[in-house]
Design brief:
- Helix content is 33%, strand content 23%.
- The chain is built from eleven helices and 14 strands.
- The protein starts with a strand and ends in a 9-residue tail after the last strand.
- An eight-stranded parallel sheet has the order 5-6-7-8-9-10-11-12.
- The protein is α/β, with parallel strands linked by helices.
- The chain has two domains: 104 residues, 2-Layer Sandwich (Enolase-like, domain 1); 208 residues, TIM Barrel (Alpha-Beta Barrel), CATH 3.20.20.
- The longest helix is centred in the first third of the chain and has 18 residues.
Amino acid sequence: MERRLTALSERFPIAGIFTISRGSKTEAEVVTCTVTEGSRSGRGECVPYRRYGETVEGVLAAIRAITPVIEAGTTREELRRAMPPGAARNAVDCALWDLEAKTSATPAWHHVCAEAPHPLVTAYTLSLGDPAAMANQARANARRPLLKVKVGGDGDMERVRAVVAAAPQSRIVLDANEGWSQDNVLPHLEECARLGVALVEQPLPAGQDGILATIPHPVPVCADESVHTAAGLEALAGLYDAVNIKLDKAGGLTEAIAMRDRARALGLSVMVGCMVGTSLAMAPAVLLAQDADYVDLDGPLLLARDRVPGLVYEGSLVSPPEADLWG
């Protein structure tokens, strides 16, 4: 049966401004890939990430370049060898997963999860700001069980103390986005332990994190920018306690499953995270995250407008995707 691939860019406004240590943005720029066979189509979404030199134009060009191969019938495993990891491969891979589910009438979760998927508690992200602004964000979301707090600059511990005071019942995960240094990482971790922080994500720049093997971890430390694919996990096992698996970094659900299984074998805890995207990007990650230690799939909660239909969020509880969305 003839197969066709199309891709386009879309923009979804963010509710307010989303700020991390590397900058701010007011909209999510995504690329949506659709693979069609006969009357059935599968979709996948990616978020190009400038941290890795990705742009919307570059991702669209990469998908155009691989289109003849996909239309010739390439499988997901073959795609892993034909494209490098990253956002472009993620969009194509997830579209193939969705197409397989729709053509076989077998939900994708049968191949991803050990059992039927259930709703998950996701973190909710607080944007980087001054302590008073972050306390206001925390106070407004103090009923959420898990808050992910963006830090990564001078005054970080004041920010954390303000958030903890404003949301005393919430578990706190910090995400420094490579914003700490070898001089302050241990004092910051020790203060985080005193404040009851559950996890600190990517405190040091990727490639400068060797010191993590030589210092105590009073709070577990999670790799994000330092980890992309399963092949890189073994080198991180002595540095980190956990890894953040994101489909856009891994280059799709196929590679992300391999990462999850390898991380578990190495004794690493697993977070399943996301870029700021729509429910279409989160849907496959919800299946991947069914047995994760930490779930950070709040992308649609940060948007002023999501896709319709989208995932169902009730507070911080996100339900598995219905077939009309994905999988």
